[in-house]
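batch_manifest entry 22 of 60
target: Glutamate ABC transporter substrate-binding protein
source organism: Oerskovia douganii
requested by: lab member K.T.
priority: normal
notes from requester: please return tokens only, no post-processing; we will run our own comparison against the previous entry in this batch. if the run fails, retry once and flag.
--- input ---
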Amino acid sequence: MRALVALAFTGALVLTGCTAPDGGSSAGAPVASVVSAAGGSATVNGTAGSSVSAAAACENPVASYAPDGPLPAPGALPAGSTMAAIRDRGSLIVGVSADTLQLGARNPLTGQIEGFDIDVLHEVSNAIFGDPDRLQFRVITSGQRLEVLEQGTVDVVARAFTINCERWETIAFSSEYYHAGQKVLVTRDSEAAGIADLAGQRVCAPDGTTTLERLQEYPDIEAVPATTHTGCLALFQQGKVDAITGDDTILAGFAAQDPYAKVVGQAISDEPYGLGVPAANVDMVKFVNGVLEQMRTDGTWTAMYDEWLGVLGPAPAPPAAVYGRTP
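--- output ---
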């Protein structure tokens, strides 16, 4: 029965694996093509900013670069900037999930990738092009997030990307746009009240995530890695693991899909989400931070929360931006 509940979603995942070749963009036409992370290299202006220094600052990992004043109009982007190069190319190339419900997942009815993370990217696209749909999606796993940014094959990554000091050493982050916490998903009849009650049990988390790393703090738990969060869900529904651990945003999507599952426990970590940007493109980070500031003040952030994350409860105040980082 439980396997049947996720049948439509599983079918969508099969589609996720079938990625199209890198598509060009045409003026006046939305770009929403999907290519694999291993597709052709994207041209990103790496000379517009300076690299983040590893010594720079990890006293506060959520501190980012302050915007350079009000956002420029799409037709008035600074000459020679990363944003102007993206505009001239015709699309914003973004690394996303296509199987993380509520954040970035393919709708099995429309075939479109949608969610909270995706809507943030639509806002960035609108600020660059005056068109929210000039996005070219590259579907990536959690473990590929750093790789595609370090290689410069995407302009931005929005994939439940926790900001931390180690990652700042090789990439740059926007200011925090969502604050999540790590919890666990168990069967509805489980007596576990949190992760501390799962000693001797098998708990799944995706490769390349802070949630998998944190399982090392619980040596009595058998950590089971999977390629994606949905890989964990498949193992859970097949009875091959007893629980899944991950950010509450992600687990809420799974619980909404599976009536035989529930999310339990207090958060055992803070997971501040930021948009990942290649380290050299400091001007792009500042620009994105301007977009996020606008979203916080004009109600866009709250409307997006209500649409995608309302299952977690009433919308909180958006995370306050923290600045002070210098190149």
